[in-house]
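Title: Prediction job returns without error message
Component: structure pipeline
Severity: low
Priority: P3
Assignee: unassigned

Description:
Job completed but the reporter wants confirmation the result is attached to the right record. Sequence as submitted:
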Amino acid sequence: MILFFGTRPGKPETKTLLNSSCSFCHQQGTLTAVSQKNFIHVFWIKLFKISSNTTIECSHCKRTYYENEFTEEMISELSNTKNQLK
């Protein structure tokens, strides 16, 4: 019997952070957060989440922020948008 298993990324979720400003170019409303989760799958059926990754990019200066570089302003707005979706 052949068993196909492994990991695969889920669909990326994109959110625009309108109330946060870029700490590099100081433009407000130009930040976009992209979250992507990774799953374990068997026969290409997702079983459970093993990790998630979030990055924020400024559309004005193209600066990318990784999770350890988020400011308090970015973190609070991300948590507010997650609470509104629930």
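Comment from assignee: result matches the submitted record. The chain has a mean pLDDT of 88.
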